[in-house]
Design a protein that fits this description.
alpha+beta; 3-stranded antiparallel β-sheet; 3 helices; 5 strands; 18% strand; elongated
């Protein structure tokens, strides 16, 4: 792996995405914007090929491939059109890519099954008995 530089997107201490592995295209944004929306391509479509990326660890690549949000060619496509400015949409798309890859690179901690404490069981059963007694007291005496 190469050391992170200004041309790389820092994800984790082991993963840094080089600028050369990102493909950006600018498209027209939908939504509000008045006449400007038909003239300016402010939305950003960011493509990152998971299959050919050299910067990914095997674990991160496997998680991203199993994620199911890839094109047939293995591209992860992120469309950012939240803002009216192209630069802010660009930064948003890159931040979302970093977050997706960071989540994929972080191993999931397996859940350890724990037992329900006896005090909790007792408290729940006591509450049920209490409610039953209240309801029983409302009934007409025979």
């Amino acid at each position: 792996m190469s050391a992170p530089s200004s041309k790389n997107l820092f994800v984790t201490h082991r993963i840094s995405i080089p600028e050369s592995e990102l493909e950006e295209s600018f498209i027209r944004s939908s939504g509000p914007g008045g006449q400007n929306v038909n003239k300016v391509s402010s939305a950003v479509q960011l493509r990152f090929n998971v299959l050919t990326a050299l910067c990914l660890t095997d674990v991160a690549r496997e998680v991203l491939l199993r994620g199911g949000k890839l094109t047939q060619g293995g591209d992860l496509v992120i469309t950012a059109q939240r803002f009216r400015e192209q630069e802010r949409n660009r930064a948003d798309a890159r931040a979302r890519l970093v977050e997706i890859v960071r989540r994929a690179a972080t191993p999931k901690v397996p859940r350890r099954a724990t037992r329900i404490p006896k005090a909790s069981k007792r408290k729940r059963l006591d509450g049920k008995k209490h409610r039953a007694r209240i309801k029983q007291d409302r009934a007409r005496p025979d």
